[in-house]
Amino acid sequence: MSMTNIEPTHRAEPPSESESEQMEAAFQAALEQLPPNTGLSHAVRERARALFEVGWISGVRTGHTGPALAGVPLPPETFSEALASLAARSQDSGPGIGQLVSYHGTHQRAWGRYWVTGIERQFSRWGREYVLYRLSEYRGGVFVTALSGVHVESITALPQYWQRSTL
Predict the structure, then answer these.
(1) Angle at Cα 68 formed by Cα 83 and Cα 81, nearest 5°?
(2) What's the CA gap between 69 and 29, in Å, rounded?
(3) Residue 154, Cα to own-chain centre: how many angstroms?
(4) Which residue(s) pair with 135 in the sheet?
(5) Where are the annotated segments for Disordered (predicted)?
(6) Exposed/middle/buried for 85, CB within 10 Å: 0-12, 13-18, 19+?
(7) H helix runs in 33-159, sequence order
(8) Rounded to whole angstroms, how far apart are CA atoms 142 and 32?
(9) How many other β-carbons are positioned within 10 Å of the β-carbon of residue 3?
(10) What percentage of the chain carries pLDDT values higher than 70?
(11) Checking DSSP bridges between strand 155-157 and strand 142-151, what pairing results, if any?
């Protein structure tokens, strides 16, 4: 009885220096095709860069980047639509301003429902973007800040119907 060999025939290799250089040049050329006021966040660009790198290096290794290297770029709207979709997904990853959330972070005494009244994006020392939320209670017709500097891991967005019935 013979067993099927599931080992790959080729050994996996990280991108070579020339593959990375080609990819970076192609990615920059694609970004330059976008309108100047696109306003993509650093996080979206880095996600796009990672996806672009996979596609580009796959193309290089299979011999399908010839047309791209021959000066036949994609239409600007193709790349723009892909990045816009990625940006929309990135924005959907956390609650938005005016959304009701449940706080379950390290301050157990503060656990409960709050309104998101502020969102601040910052960079860490390592250049990674992170988001901090300001959470408020709605008292006497005004929002009163209850917690600030809250990480996304400490909150869960509540369904829309909570928002309509609470205010």
Answers:
(1) 15
(2) 11
(3) 18
(4) 116, 147
(5) 1-22
(6) exposed
(7) 42-62, 66-69, 76-91
(8) 45
(9) 5
(10) 67
(11) unpaired
Distance, in Å, from the CA atom of 152 to the CA atom of 19, rounded to the nearest integer, reads 36
DSSP conformational letter for 93: T
pLDDT tens digits for 105-162? 999 999 999 999 999 988 777 777 788 999 999 998 899 999 999 998 899 888 754 4
Written as six digits, the tokens of 69 are 């290297």
Q: Give residue-wise pLDDT tens across range 118-130.
A: 999 887 777 777 8
Nearest Cα residue to 52 out of 23, 74, 28: 23
Give the separation between CA 31 and CA 47, rounded to whole angstroms: 13
Strand order in the sheet with 112-123: 142-151, 129-139, 112-123, 100-103, 155-157
- Tokens at 136, concatenated: 């408020």
Longest distance between any two alpha carbons in the chain, whole Å: 78
